Amino acid sequence: MPERIMSLADRIIEHHGYSAYCLYLSQFTPPEDGSGRPHFPQYAVVHCADCFRGVHHEVMNFMSSYDTRYTVRVRENENVTFMPVLQGNREALVTALCPSCSDECEWCSDLVRLTGREFTDHMLCEACEDDARQCYGCDRLLNVQNDYYETFDTYGRRDDYWCRRCYADVAVSCDICDETYHQDDDPNCDCHDNSGIIMSYGAMRDASDRIFHVGRNDDGDTIIIHGQHGFNRSQFVHEPVMGFEAECESEKADLYKGAELFRNLIDDNRLYLKEDGSLRDGFEVVTHPHTLDMFQNHFDWQPFVDLSKMGFRAYKYHDPSLNHDVGFHIHINRNAFYTKRLHERTSSSPHLYGFLSFIYHNVPAMTRISSRNSHYGTITENELDNIYGYARHRSYGDRSVAVNCRNQHTIELRCFAGALNPARALGYLEFTHALWAYTSTGRISKMKEHHKMDFSAFADWVDHDPKYSNLVSLIKRSDARSSY
User: Fold this and answer.
1) Cβ contact 137:143 at 8 Å
2) Which parts of the chain sit beneath pLDDT 50?
3) What value, to the nearest 5°, has the Cα angle with vertex 91 and ends 89 and 96?
């Protein structure tokens, strides 16, 4: 009869006892089938790794683990004698745990080793303990991996975790921007600090981040377009967009109370406020691009009126120590002066040439309308020698002239005096729009032929268009016709 072939485990138990078998188990790797449970003889007894109690292997639990074993290797080189080399190898092992030393994880049902756990009141495996946090309010255990928690993103509380019930009891929301903060802390936002409303002098929006207010849809809602390249001029080919910068000084008023007046318009993305180097104690109101109709019929001018009532000034100061040279700058999109699509254009614009030519041919009238001839926006006939270059190149000439042509996306009229009066501000905007229409490409040759480059012809043309009523009043008040 052939001799029975015994497994290695059987031979260890039979010939060397359980101690030797425990040593064998400490070096046993999980089976290749991935079950994590080693194969044992039918009546094998396994000792628990924590309490060392011997338990039948079918009752025992097994936890996968890893260990680094250092083995001796012999490295041989031509002129070097044999020498031992230690090399560490990470090996997969199993840890045997009896039912008294192990349990099931409350969250993931994996095996839990009871010794060395952080949260002794909860049965969690090592992986789940890494995702566990205690609620700062009620000490309830939270699973952050499942987003079952809230936090306050403020210094000193960033490491505090809150259950939703406790968070609701202590959380307070800003009534302006809805940002949440702890009831015992100061607000995180700058909404209640009006100094945060006024941005720094260098703050500006990139062309790709502009917000255009271009009209109203059939439901009466404002049509807003985000981005320079998102603006489709084909829909508004006969209507340019404009934005203005209105400078003002807080002559007899609190600067930040004045800034607060514009809170709603800032939140509606209609404008923002910023510092300006030419102002002593004031700010500059900068609007996003709007069509003329949006400024005339769908824009809130009341904050400008209230600003004037509070004691802010942008024109004719009473205090001689304040800066009298405060301006109102208007930007009109450069694309409005081109008739061809962007990729079909030549570098020159006859329309822009006519626009500039009219302004510098009518210096006396322009000075009366603008109520200003400052070194920040000089109006002089000497610029007639430069207008061809202005119309041909995107960045050309001096910035501090009546019309600044150095910007990539806009043409900036810098000649106007400051204005908080809505009628005067609208008069400036209507002048810019009217002159754009009056000097359109198809009219330039006729204007030269019939000597209509003079201001009186332009004023007669404006009188017949009802949408320029504020400009008509401005021409009359400034007596611009009498300059001829």
Assistant:
1) no
2) 1-5, 27, 29-30, 317-320, 322-323, 343-344, 450
3) 150
Instruction: Specify the 3-state DSSP secondary structure of 106.
Output: coil
Give the per-residue pLDDT at 289.
92
Which pair of tokens denotes residue 354? 């006519």
Neighbours of 123 (CB within 10 A): 16
Amino acid letter, residue 273: L
Segments of the chain assigned to CATH 3.30.590? 196-483
Q: Are 44 and 21 in contact (CB under 8 A)?
A: yes
CA 150 – CA 164 distance, rounded (Å): 6
What does the pLDDT read at residue 267?
85
Q: What are phi and psi of 167, to 5 degrees?
A: -65, -40
CATH 1.20.1270 for domain 196-483: no
CB atoms within 10 A of CB 199: 15
Structure tokens at 279: 């102002």
Helix (H) or strand (E) holding 11: helix 8-26
pLDDT for res 470: 96
Amino acid identity of residue 95, one-letter, is T
pTM assigned to the model: 0.60
- Kindly state the tokens that stand for 83: 């020498």
d(CA 320, CA 323): 8
